[in-house]
Amino acid sequence: MGVFAFYITYDHTPIVFTYLRKDKSTHHTTGEPLSVIFAKIFMEMDATPKIPVSVYAEMTPNPAVLKFVANKRLIERDHIEFKNIEEAKPSPLAVRLFHYPFVKEVFISSNYLAITKYDIVEWDDITLEMRELIRDYVAEGGIVLDENALKQLEETPEAQTTQGEALKKHPEEKAPEAYDAIEKRIVELLEEYVTPAVAQDGGNIKFLNYQEESGTVNVLLQGACSGCPSSTQTLQQGINNLLQQMLPGQIKAVQAVNG
């Protein structure tokens, strides 16, 4: 139920202590020591139901990437990707993960992390440890992504250095405000038909640009989509078919770049 607020009434003898529960009911106490009154209030505050945090591991099409899904939102932004421990400084959780020698990259989305490993261990040997680390960290209220630290980093010269690689735009990425009509339509189609499916596999796809002269669409693959030749080829062909069907005569090819 929990306590919403409490207040003291001084125009009574003895003092009346009233507290308002979250269900809007009130409870009055009188003639009790303050220590007893506060103990009751804190007991009700602690009685507020809490949803336990759960995390499960999920395979992706990329054998080097495993997805760890939580039952709560982890970050406010759509996603962020870290290639090394220097980039990961705004994310204390990612920093902890990078201390493991087998962790190569960390991709964080709204409710999951996708970890890319070096080929020095098998997932069977480390999955339980990774899952418990993430679950315990989130359950204890640890900061997954410090937005303030990230914003400060974005505003400093470091954002242009190796430490800021996670914050830098791809050199071929076109600014959204400069999109023309067909580019806006391409982005809409990707977000509607491709991004949700890719996210289920622990990855992300980002529109870079459209070259009207050649009819080529360039996209950036991130997370589990990146670095897997078979999934890259399959995804590239799927996007090509989709865009050619929805935008006939305007799309000739799709080029996928690994993040």
Radius of gyration: 25 Å
CATH superfamily heading of the largest domain: Scaffold protein Nfu/NifU, N-terminal domain
Number of structural units classed as domains: 3
Please give the CATH architecture of the largest domain: 2-Layer Sandwich
**If helices are DSSP runs of H or I spanning 4 or more residues, what is the number of helices?**
6
Largest sheet: 5 strands, antiparallel
Q: Spatial order of the strands in the main sheet?
A: 4-5-8-7-6
Class computed from helices, strands and strand pairing: alpha+beta
Q: Helix content range of the residues, please?
A: 25-40%
Strand content: 25-35%
Indicate the low-confidence ranges by residue numbers. Answer: 1-13, 160-165
Q: Could you name the CATH topology of the largest domain?
A: Ribosomal Protein S8, Chain: A, domain 1
Instruction: Tally the beta strands.
Output: 11
Shape: elongated
The separation of the N and C termini measures 47 Å
**Highest CATH level, the class of the largest domain:** Alpha Beta
Element-level helix/strand string: EEEHEEEHEEHHHEEHE
- What's the mean pLDDT score? 80
Structural description of this entry:
This protein is an alpha+beta fold and 259 residues long. The protein has 3 domains: 3-46; 55-167, Scaffold protein Nfu/NifU, N-terminal domain (Ribosomal Protein S8, Chain: A, domain 1), CATH 3.30.1370.70; 176-258, GMP Synthetase, Chain A, domain 3 (2-Layer Sandwich). Helices cover 32% and strands 27% of the residues. The strands form 3 sheets. The protein has a 5-stranded antiparallel beta sheet, with helices on one face. A 3-stranded antiparallel beta sheet has the order 1-2-3, covered by helices on one side. It has a 3-stranded mixed beta sheet with strand order 9-10-11. A hairpin with a 4-residue loop joins strand 2 (16-21) and strand 3. The chain starts with a strand and ends with a strand. The relative contact order is 0.12. Residues 1-13 and 160-165 have low confidence and may be disordered.
